[in-house]
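User: Here's a protein and a ligand (zinc ion). What would the complex look like?
Assistant: Let me lay out the input and then the predicted complex.
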Amino acid sequence: MLEHPSIQALLEKQKKQHHVASVLSLLGWDEQVNLPPKSSDQRGQQMATLSEVHHQFGSDPSISGLLKALEADWSQLNDQEQAIVKNSRKEFDRATRLPTDYVTEKAILDSEAYHAWVNARENDDFAAFAPFLKRQLEMAKRGAEFMGRGGDPYDYQIDLFDPGMTAQTIEGLFTTLKEELVPLSREILSSPVQAKNEQLKAFSVDKQEAFLKEVTAKLGFDYDRGRIDVAVHPFCSGNACDTRMTTRFHEDVPLDSLFSSIHETGHGLYEQGLPRDQLHNALGQAVGMGIHESQSRLWENQVSRSREFWQYFEPKYREAFPEQLSSLSSDDLYLAVNAVTLCPIRVDSDEVTYNLHIILRFELEKMLFSGELEVDELPDTWNRLSQEIIGLTPTSNKAGVLQDVHWSGGMFGYFPSYCLGNMIAAQLWYTLLEEMPDLLSDFARGDFSRLLGWLRDRIHQHGKRYETQDLVKRVTGDKINPKHLIQYLKDRYKPLYQ
Ligand SMILES: [Zn+2]
């Protein structure tokens, strides 16, 4: 299938670079899961050296010749070859157009800004973080200029996480979503129906771990080429051959570890479904963050918050925690799984209000990049817009503008992909139900294989062959459309909250 002679030479180069990248990722995983506290200095140096090696492979001058030869024969390449070349070009330009001074300055700034953010959040002191945020914003704009994207630096940032996506497209989607979601969330929150999550107490960590492993294995995660461990923040890293997930445990918040594990399992199933023989090139890699997030959200929300999922797992959950669940009826448990509460913290939010947190961040980022908003004005504007969009004003900057780590690392344009993921998940869901109207009855029997097979076939096997919008259109017949998410949230939450 890959026929052009220069392709093989290019792939050979990418293979070594990918080996280094995957070792770097493993070291990063180890840092968060195993590393003794006093060993972190050495780890920083190890990773810096390996990053240099990675950069040397990626900026190898001979790649330029290979890419030019392939681009000259563009019309003769098949679509898989085109995807490989297109992505290699992006990566090569990024590796060679950014001056070394800039890359070094950015690496130092990332580290300093991260620590400044940790302290600023701890002390609820935005002014201490503001100079670093200003510099990150400047660096992002300069980076876009080096890449020939100085005219639209925010679009350049967004494209880093979601290939082909633009601020204008996102704005259109979010405007429609906001119009429907703000009133819907207010309706749910004012309902007399209230979940009883505070009654979930004293779930032993050992039993939680055993239960979530049973659930995630049933969903299809292959523990022979992946694992789950404990870390402060849940994440999923690695690749199709070796997928590493993490979770965290709290005895009195058992649904958090269960659902965050299911979420990471969605990411893990995507990674494990990517073609293993193409691991080192674009065909074996995820499209971008929006599609990745659609996979985690689909398993977490559409699947695991469904009645049918709990028809199968509730007896097993009660068997593991008979006393802890004794005061809750089946309906109570189902409502606890689908609790909606007003919360200032994004990561603690439910699937309804979560999207409002993202819309808030997108609007702020857009204004920061256009110059409409100064960094110093950020806390006040955050609080004002938070009241308008989410319906609450955070009582501190710690619970407001300082809550997320992303901006300290200059990761502007990342947040929208969380909400795009929710929209794509809902859109995939309705396509699934159209093609397999009885799909939910599978879940009631503990069978998730038809769903996983469909995702493997429609999404996973293609790697980066299609950009986000093209893939969504190919699978669902339409580009990303927020109406599916709105429909899904109404279908699920209106009956629950009357
Ligand atoms: Zn995720």
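Summary: DSSP finds 20 helices and three strands in the chain.
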